[in-house]
């Protein structure tokens, strides 16, 4: 590392300020923890300028953290300032990078305080830009990107508006599997007898017949063709079905590389398509003329107002999981693990345009959440599997088991949401905790994370407790110690007799007794959700319906905004397939309408 | 009764003949058995003329037999001839009436042979008539009549074409109950939480997910409003639900007066509406211009060809149960109890117009049929109930029981269709046979019918056997006598122990042992059907789809012709409701389209 002892002054290059800085010319390095590990940054200084910022290989999320790294680095160099905002949706990565740059500035003897001062930016004169387009799509998640790609392929003039500074929405954090009913993919994997009606039946079963029937028939009639389209466009799938009890017919296929790869493929396709992508521009309303949608109004970060006139408006704005004000019922207290961009913007825009809404109380809850930040979850789904392979059990605050730990998530949530603070607890001996720790990595929970949480000793969430004995761990976690001891003994007798008389845990997951000698661990288990199920009412062509049941001309919905297709619960693989189906089929219908 | 001894001659008044007749002036009476009992006729003669035919009160079917009586009476008087054809679909009534008239002619000393001679009618010059209309409806069953009434209410010019000489189709022989999901009627009866999705789920369950999803969504979204319409128009319902296992939600309500009253209400409404009803005119094809339906061509009995130009064509032609050539699979051998007019005309017309067909193998089978004429069934549903209330059992040709006699019809048909000649047998001691005879009346089977069939002693169908002992009855019926004896003994032991170890017949229907002392009776049980389930593929607006999945412009389907909505089985009350829903909603859509 070079060091220069001579300080020099320089005039800042930025327009709205006249500060001057001095650095030791040279390249300095620092590294702070991001979301996927450390974020190693290298900053090169001349005497009076931050010349270059480089970030070494890291595990920040493609399309989210990586975009934040690129945009923040370029912003700092461009503005010669550290007064750069974190990127919404990539806060942890942004902070890691900015902290690293600041350390480099300190190492280069720069004045961090001065550089971090908000600049006296001359007030921006708000501009208004008018854009004329065939189709404006609001929201750059899976549904919006697919609609944009497909509409552009059909020579529509497409404008895609995304409030974040990257495309992806919830697509990169999805479950990673896709329903393929009626597709060539499904047939090639050996299932040729699936039908729209069979899929509809399973969806109605899973969603307790709260499903929107119009959306449902649209879904089942079009999913196969839409999956075929995705395959043709380069979306990659595994070579076998994934089996789940929700589906009576084999129709769920994992995405190759999971959802991150899926999202990346879509981003590439958008890049290569003739789509006018407007990032960091937030749609604010659907413009209506004589009861018909005629475009949208959006606002850029710099205050620029965009009037986008369009022949068709497609809202693909995702859910409202990150908007507490819109959450109801058990969702209000559940932990969230979805994207921060899911704030229900499209729900509000649609409602203001006269749309009828439904099922706004519902979301897809899973039982295996730990609270890693206020209101924010990480999933321990994999960690639990590791624990149950050993001798892990689940108990309530009274220290009693309440369910077959290997039962369905749906049954577990039903019991969990009736507990104080909707919380259940994993009760783990050493080998079970080791199993938990090992498997938890698959959900992106590192051993370091776990040690940090253990060190907090329950003083702040997530609750990870270690005690020298069962009683000590129980007491620290606020669980009835005597009952927990009894529960452990009873469970051990069930293991010996190969019969869980209380909850019928499968014998193959009861091979080991719980070690009562200590140490002993307690881990909180709270409901988590990412996907909301409430949304707009639609016709069988995904036209948005008004409160009198009439379609609002030229206004369409796709993806999570129209999630009532699922009813009060969503089945595995059904959300991604829904985004693909709506994105593809609605854009086809719009192209067909505009060109005929 | 007057008698005149003087004979006189007269010139026949009919145009195409020059025969002369002589009668004893006066009024004569005769009476022959029809379908519902005796048909008493009074004929008044002058010296040279049949002056008047009157028929006294009788039980012939309203809308079918009664129409035949009216049209034959008027035809005989008008043509002064007995060479009048039986009315198709009312053969028994026609024959009873004509036999009565002939007897009266004999009593009046008229020359029956001469009067029955085919007249030398001058060859008819085939005419062509052209009719211009807004909507032409083919088929005057429930769906067609409702569409006609509703379209006329909305000031469309409506032409209703029916090949029979009366309106009604299958409506008068339906099960008599109606699905009411979402209607005010259902709410008024206390069920307010039914939904389209709940109905869809039950229909998919019952139809084994073979249901047409487009038709299904159309059905569940529109049935409630359609029932409300029917109520407003004067269709009368009972004041309570009828409960059936197929429905998870109470939604089936019996029609007041059953289906005959329903059909009669519709006929009255058609009569009072501004509808151009063309009876005895058979539609032969949908006329197509540039791929769009532009009307139909039909032919009258006298050879007149009708070109009916229309802006919309609605096919409501019913099923194909009476057309052996179109029946497949287990339907081919099943007995039929539906209307003779169900010959699949609309299926053929639609297919010739390019329509895609589906589920043509399926019909709604019931297990309790006896063959009263070749291929024709009557139902013994009620008779069986009477027999099972005593000690009646059901056996196969080997003399073994094969099922819980009180189980579902669906399960019974599944076993029955695997038997030789798809036949099972009621095995009845005297008190069980008495119970059968008593209850069978509710299905229109008289004690005289039963005695007649017993007298035939199995020499021709239906098989009704009486033997002095179990063995004798079994032998005559071709059933293994030893096995039947063993079966009876075993069943009796189950009755004593209150436990049917083989098939779990409910104990409350096992209160009496079978009397082994004789006499003993065997009654055949064959599958019967009236409703076919195959039909045209449709859009969610009941537009007929072509083989490429594109709607055929201006061509719509309603009623049994689009019965694939039900899947491979139809649930109770779902057929009548389907006819009401399609008739009402499709005509609304057509009116809306033509007037906007």
TrEMBL record, chains A, B:
Coiled coil segments of this chain = none
Cofactor(s) needed: FAD; FMN
Database matches in Pfam families: FAD_binding_2 (PF00890), FMN_bind (PF04205)
Keyword Signal in record = yes
Q: Which UniProt keywords apply?
A: FAD, Flavoprotein, Oxidoreductase, Signal
An example of a GO molecular function for this protein is: oxidoreductase activity
| Residues of the signal peptide | 1-22
Q: Where is the FMN-binding domain?
A: 34-108
Any one GO cellular component localisation term in the record:
membrane
Does this entry carry the keyword Signal?
yes
Q: Which SMART domains match?
A: FMN_bind
PANTHER family found in the cross-reference section: FAD-DEPENDENT OXIDOREDUCTASE 2 FAD BINDING DOMAIN-CONTAINING PROTEIN (PTHR43400:SF7), FUMARATE REDUCTASE (PTHR43400)
Q: Which family does it belong to?
A: Belongs to the FAD-dependent oxidoreductase 2 family. FRD/SDH subfamily.
> What's the protein here called?
Flavocytochrome c
Q: Which organism is it from?
A: Parasutterella excrementihominis YIT 11859
């Amino acid at each position: 590392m070079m060091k220069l002892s001579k300080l020099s002054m320089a005039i800042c290059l930025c327009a709205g300020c006249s500060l001057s800085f001095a650095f030791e010319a040279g390249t300095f390095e620092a590294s702070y923890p991001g979301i996927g590990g450390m974020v190693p940054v290298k900053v090169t200084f001349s005497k009076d300028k931050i010349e270059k910022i480089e970030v070494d290989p890291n595990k920040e999320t493609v399309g989210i953290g990586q975009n934040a790294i690129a945009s923040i680095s370029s912003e700092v160099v461009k503005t010669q300032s550290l007064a750069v905002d974190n990127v919404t949706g990539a806060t942890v990565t942004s902070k890691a990078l900015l902290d690293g740059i600041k350390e480099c500035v300190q190492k280069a003897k720069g004045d961090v305080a001065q550089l971090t001062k908000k600049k006296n930016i001359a007030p921006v004169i708000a501009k208004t830009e008018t854009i004329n387009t065939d189709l404006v799509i609001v929201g750059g998640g899976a549904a919006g990107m697919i609609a944009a790609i497909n509409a552009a392929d059909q020579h529509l003039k497409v404008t895609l508006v995304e409030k974040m500074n990257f495309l992806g929405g919830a697509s990169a954090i999805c479950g990673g599997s896709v329903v393929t009913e009626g597709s060539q993919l499904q047939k090639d994997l050996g299932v040729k007898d699936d039908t729209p009606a069979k899929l509809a039946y399973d969806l109605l079963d899973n969603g307790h017949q709260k499903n929107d029937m119009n959306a449902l028939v649209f879904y089942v009639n079009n999913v196969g063709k839409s999956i075929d389209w995705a395959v043709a466009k380069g979306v990659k799938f595994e070579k076998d079905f994934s089996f789940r009890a929700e589906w009576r017919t084999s129709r769920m296929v994992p995405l190759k590389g999971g959802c991150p790869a899926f999202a990346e493929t879509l981003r590439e396709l958008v890049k290569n398509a003739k789509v006018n992508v407007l990032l960091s521009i937030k749609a604010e309303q659907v413009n209506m003329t004589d009861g018909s949608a005629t475009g949208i109004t959006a606002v850029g970060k710099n205050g620029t107002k965009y009037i986008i006139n369009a022949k068709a408006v497609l809202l693909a704005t995702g859910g409202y999981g990150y908007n507490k004000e819109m959450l109801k019922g058990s969702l209000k207290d559940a932990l969230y693990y979805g994207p921060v961009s899911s704030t229900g913007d499209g729900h509000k825009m649609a409602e203001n345009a006269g749309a009828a809404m439904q099922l706004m109380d519902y979301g897809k809850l899973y039982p295996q959440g730990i609270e890693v930040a206020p209101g924010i979850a990480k999933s321990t789904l994999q960690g639990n599997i590791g624990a149950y392979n050993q001798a892990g059990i689940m108990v309530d605050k009274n220290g009693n088991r309440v369910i077959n730990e290997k039962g369905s998530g749906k049954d577990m949530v039903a019991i969990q949401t009736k507990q104080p603070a909707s919380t259940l607890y994993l009760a783990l001996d050493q080998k079970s905790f080791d199993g938990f720790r090992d498997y938890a990595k698959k959900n992106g929970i590192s051993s370091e994370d776990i040690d940090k949480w253990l060190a907090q000793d329950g003083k702040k969430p997530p609750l990870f407790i270690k005690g020298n004995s069962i009683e000590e761990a129980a007491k620290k976690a606020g669980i009835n110690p005597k009952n927990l001891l009894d529960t452990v003994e009873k469970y051990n007798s069930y293991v010996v007799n190969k019969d869980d008389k209380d909850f019928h845990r499968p014998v193959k997951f009861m091979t080991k007794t719980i070690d009562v000698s200590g140490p002993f661990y307690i881990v909180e288990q709270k409901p988590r959700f990412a996907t909301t199920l409430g949304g707009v009412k639609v016709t069988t062509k995904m036209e948005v319906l008004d409160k009198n049941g009439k379609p609002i001309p030229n206004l369409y919905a796709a993806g999570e905004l129209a999630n009532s297709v699922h009813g009060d619960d969503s089945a595995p693989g059904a959300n991604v397939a829904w985004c693909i189906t709506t994105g593809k089929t609605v854009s086809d219908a719009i192209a067909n309408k505009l060109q005929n």
